[in-house]
Amino acid sequence: xxxxxxxxxALRLQEGESSSLNCSYTVSGLRGLFxxxxxxxxxxEFLFTLYSAGEEKEKERLKATLTKKESFxxxxxxxxxxxxxxxxxxxxxxxxxxxxxPGTRLSVLP
Amino acid sequence: EAQVTxxxxxxxxxxxxxxxxxxxxxxNHEYMSxxxxxxxxxxRQIYYSMNVEVTDKGDVPEGYKVSRKEKRNFPLILESxxxxxxxxxxxxxxxxAGHxxxxxxxxPGTRLTVL
Lengths: 110, 115
Prior knowledge:
The complex is a heterodimer.
Chain A: E1 3-7, E2 10-14, E3 19-26, E4 30-38, E5 45-50, E6 56-59, E7 62-66, E8 70-75, E9 84-92, E10 99-100, E11 104-109
Parallel strand pairs in A: 2-11
Antiparallel strand pairs in A: 1-3, 3-8, 4-5, 4-9, 6-7, 7-8, 9-10, 9-11
Chain B: E1 4-7, E2 10-13, E3 19-25, E4 31-38, E5 42-51, E6 54-57, E7 65-66, E8 76-78, E9 87-97, E10 100-106, E11 110-114
Parallel strand pairs in B: 2-11
Antiparallel strand pairs in B: 1-3, 3-8, 4-5, 4-9, 5-6, 7-8, 9-10, 9-11
């Protein structure tokens, strides 16, 4: 059974203080790993898809990396508008369903 | 504007009263899915559909039904709602690109309370 865990559960940063969020996964064969951002009361919004170990993708202050067991979302010099819950999800090679982690709630203080 | 719409956005009902939550997308996506989101449990997939007339169970399908008669619509049906189905529900759609799926676009959510 596919499993996804995320750490930390919550993270408070000062504006400009860089950090990383972790997503650990267990799948029988990874088809794709997805990162989403979710603002309170809204649906998740897509950030990145990673397909194989060693792959990296960047978007503004965010950079996602992937190994065979985990993915990291690096946030460089965050701003208050980066405050949100960040969700990680996986899809395996054998099914068509997606499994999400519980998320990391990020607060960036001015 | 490309979007996924859900209706209603908020619903309070009573145990046993059948209800339907509608979901529609205007992006011609093959893949559609329903999730529920509960505190501490994250997003859990209820049902998904790879195309018209093709549906399959996700991780938490008990107590729910779906249908996919048209490509754009994917309604979620609760035949006899119970209080443990009180949750925030999201519909999502995705374009199937060969061996994998592109990003999922999520709707705004439906907050359901079952008394």
